[in-house]
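Blinded run. Sample ID left blank on purpose so nobody reads anything into the name before looking at the predicted structure. Input follows.
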Amino acid sequence: REPRTGYDREYEQFPPSELSPAEVGALVSQGGVTEKQFTATLFDLIRKGVISADPTKVTRVTWAGMRSEEITDLVLGLTDRDTGLRDFEQSVLTVMKRALAEGPMPLHELNDAVRSDRESNAKTYQSFRERVLEAVRRSRLLDDSGTTVSWLVRLGSIGLVVAALFLLPRMLGDLPGIEGFLFLFFMGAIVGVVVLFILLSFRRVRTRRTKEGALEAERWIAFRNYLRDFSRLEEAPSISLALWDQFLVYGISLGVAEQVLEQARIYAPEALEQTSSLYWYGNHGYGGGG
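Blinded prediction complete.
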């Protein structure tokens, strides 16, 4: 069970702590690390200047060459600011170095570039996930000791069924109608073990947050609520340009990037377009959006 914290705020107006976007996503989801956290880390590296990002317009060919359209895109490149990164950030940078080995590349081509070295990048992505989880564990925000307990329960349940398979026929063999009873009993036991294995395969059954982690997660969930409901708030604080960049990076990891982008378009479009590496506006070609 999750520890109770007594936290009761609906909104946090600023990032509650210095946790990285990837760690925040893992903490809020009780240990889940997905492509959202990978993407958020990529854009965080852009925000930090480790990866360069320049708005541009490119021609995208679709419909087997029968149609072309001009879209606004982001050209990604490598810089020399690759020191002082954490291990999971280095995993993301490793994938980017492979993809950008031949020079800067538009963002819409990145997917194909990553897939061209699928085997190596899959291993690096798995390493990224493991490193993010290890970082959250080191911070003592996540308790996954239930994983060990779950394996003991699994082995114990199998041992009990096997022991019953040998002992019950000997102990009850003389009773009338015992064959039918034993058949139903062992069928039920096998089904029970299978259901138990399925139940214990779910991460949230085996993992919980620590007391500190539960409070931290609730604060980040309140921050996610704020990013999602920003436009509906009567008194929204003034936000610096640097915070808009930070809001977007965390929004990607928390699954509310679209809402952050929409509010940035309303509240700070010109300033962000001139100063930010993450925000720019124009037709991207996929149905006329921004």
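Unblinding after everyone has recorded impressions. Residues 284-290 have pLDDT under 50 and may be disordered.
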